[in-house]
Q: What sequence folds into this?
């Protein structure tokens, strides 16, 4: 296993499958009354979040705690970052305390990669700008796999604000590694520069994709949040027009194949990219994704921090 997790593209098919398989065992402990494994006892994990987060930060915290690591949360608000300290100084300060891993979210693409050049501990990318969010892609793959079985040969449509989405990029990389086909669906203004070189299909026509006219029937439909906080100009005329062109409305939900599932990384803009009917339908696996997030992050922490020196012991205990 690699030393850091920066990009979904760094994982081979067998590494990704190992992480997903171990996450299956971690998932089982979520149903237990006592949710604690000794695997990371004595290790310290720091969540360093320079950007807002609900799911990712709290699930990394829960994941670390359930593995018995000591977990500390530092956010930009309330830290010396708000006094003007540089990223390098903040990170070196945290690392100097002797931590084993830092989980970092930062608004600048590439910031997390840079951090690996400054510190000796494990570094996990929890979202860097519009670049990558590898653990999100892992939890999405885990959630689809739980519902539909192996990803190989499956068709996943990723719909919406691809330009600003680190989730889309990480998903395209990981899903392809796992043998799935991906079609990105967005208005031309919300497709990133250079997207033609990505290894996936592209479409501007959501209804054609739903009808199976673009690379066959869809098995999973991933709706992306319209990221207004990253938009400086007009990417689409009005929210109403966006919803008409690219929102998962009740009509479109009904066009999906019987078995197909609906995903959203959250937070959702209900009524914009996804209707409440779709978000709350029985094909929506949005809350399964959140649950999977804890298991997948336990698995990632376990493989990075304990994987090499403490092989299967903790996992055996998990599945007992
Ligand atoms: C995403 C993120 O922050 O990259 N959310 C998440 O991690 N669950 C997507 C988003 O903010 O739209």
A:
């Amino acid at each position: 296993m690699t030393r850091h997790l920066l990009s979904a593209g760094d994982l081979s098919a067998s590494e990704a499958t190992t992480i997903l398989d171990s996450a299956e065992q971690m998932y089982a402990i979520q149903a237990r009354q006592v949710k604690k494994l000794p695997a990371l006892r004595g290790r310290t994990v720091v969540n360093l979040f320079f950007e807002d987060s609900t799911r990712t930060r709290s699930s990394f915290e829960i994941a670390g705690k359930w593995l018995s690591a000591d977990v500390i949360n530092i956010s930009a608000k309330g830290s010396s970052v708000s006094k003007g300290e540089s990223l390098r100084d903040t990170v070196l300060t945290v690392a100097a305390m002797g931590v084993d891993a830092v989980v970092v979210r930062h608004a600048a693409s590439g910031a997390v990669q840079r951090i690996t050049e400054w510190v000796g501990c494990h570094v996990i990318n929890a979202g860097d700008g519009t670049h990558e969010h590898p653990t999100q892609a892992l939890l999405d793959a885990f959630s689809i796999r739980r519902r539909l079985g192996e990803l190989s040969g499956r068709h996943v449509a990723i719909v919406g604000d691809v330009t600003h989405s680190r989730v889309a990029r990480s998903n395209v990389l990981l899903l392809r590694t796992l043998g799935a086909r991906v079609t990105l669906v967005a208005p031309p203004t919300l497709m990133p520069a250079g997207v033609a070189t990505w290894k996936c299909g592209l479409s501007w026509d959501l209804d054609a994709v739903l009808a199976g006219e673009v690379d066959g029937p869809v098995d999973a439909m991933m709706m992306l949040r319209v990221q207004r906080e990253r938009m400086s100009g007009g990417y689409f005329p009005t929210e109403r027009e966006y919803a008409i062109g690219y929102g998962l409305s009740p009509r479109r939900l009904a066009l999906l194949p019987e078995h197909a599932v609906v995903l959203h990384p959250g937070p959702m803009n209900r009524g914009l990219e996804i209707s409440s009917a779709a978000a709350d339908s029985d094909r929506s696996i949005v809350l399964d994704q959140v649950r999977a997030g804890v298991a997948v992050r336990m698995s990632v922490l376990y493989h990075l921090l304990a994987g090499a020196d403490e092989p299967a012991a903790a996992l055996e205990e998990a599945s007992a």
About this structure: Residues 107 and 129 are 4 Å apart (CA to CA). The two ends are 25 Å apart (CA to CA).
